[in-house]
Amino acid sequence: MKIDNPKANELLFKFCLFFSLLIAVSCSSENKTEGNEASNTTEENTSSAPAAQPEAVPVADQSKGIGPVSNVNVGADIDKTLAGQGKTIFESKCAACHKLNERYVGPPLGGVTQRRKPEWIMNMILNPQEMVQKNDTAQALLSTYMTQMPNQNLTQEEARAMLEYFRQADSEPKQK
C-alpha cells in the first residue's frame, strides 16, 4: 500500500491550523468576558445552558449570515459584465484555496448559489471571521475543512461581482 506523503502533510497542517485557531478563539472569548465582572457573575449564577449573547443572531436569521449585507436583489438574468469582474476577483483572491467543482483547501464553490442565500454568500466573503464565530453553517464548514477563510478585504461591490460569477457558473452545465 502506497502512502501519499503530501496528502498526509497537508492533513497534519490543517489539523494543527484548526487547533491553533481553536485556541486563539478560546483565548479571545475569555479576554472579552474577563473585563466584565457583571457578565462573570451572571454566568456563574445561571444553569449549564449557555447564556444568550446580545450580539448573537437569532436562529431564524442564520440563513443570511452575519455581516453588512442584509438584502441582495438578484435579477433573473445574469449580468455577464459583473460576472466577468467576479471571475477575475475569484481567480486572483480565492482560487488558491477554492475550486468550483472539487474540494481543495476550502469547499468547492460550484452550486453554492443553490445551497446558500445571496446574502450569506456575500457576508461570508466580506466577514468570514465573525461568520465562523456566530453562524452555524460557517462553523460546520470550518469543522469540516479545518481552515479559517481569511478576510480578503473586498468591497461590497466586489463581493456582489463574485456572487454574480457564482450564479453564472451554477447556471452552466457541468463539464466532465
How is this fold's topology laid out?
Blueprint: H1 5-34, H2 37-45, H3 80-94, H4 112-115, H5 118-126, H6 128-134, H7 136-145, H8 156-171
Helix pairs in contact: 3-8, 5-8, 6-7
InterPro entries: Cyt_c-like_dom, Cyt_c-like_dom_sf
Biased composition (Polar residues): 32-48
Region (Disordered): 32-64
Q: How would you describe this structure to a colleague?
A:
This protein is an all-alpha fold and 176 residues long. It folds into 2 domains: 1-41; 63-176, Cytochrome Bc1 Complex, Chain D, domain 2 (Orthogonal Bundle), CATH 1.10.760. Helix content is 57%, strand content 0%. The protein is built from 8 helices and no strands. The protein has helices at residues 5-34, 37-45, 80-94, 112-115, 118-126, 128-134, 136-145, 156-171. α5 crosses α8 (156-171) and α6 crosses α7 (136-145). The chain is globular.
Short characterization:
InterPro entries: Cyt_c-like_dom (IPR009056), Cyt_c-like_dom_sf (IPR036909). With 176 residues, this protein is mainly α.
For the structure shown, list the relevant keywords:
mainly alpha, Cytochrome Bc1 Complex, Chain D, domain 2, 176 residues, 8 helices
Low-pLDDT segments, ≥5 res = 19-60
- Give a short account of the largest sheet: none
Number of helices: 8
Oligomer: single chain
What is the H/E order?
HHHHHHHH
Q: Whole-number radius of gyration? A: 19 Å
Strand content: under 5%
CATH A-level architecture of the largest domain: Orthogonal Bundle
Beta-strand segment tally: 0
Q: Mean of the pLDDT scores?
A: 77
What is the highest CATH level, the class of the largest domain? Mainly Alpha
Going by helix content, strand content and strand pairing, the class is: mainly alpha
Total separate domains: 2
Distance between the termini: 29 Å
Q: In which range does the helix fraction lie?
A: 55-70%
- Gross morphology: globular
State the CATH topology of the largest domain: Cytochrome Bc1 Complex, Chain D, domain 2
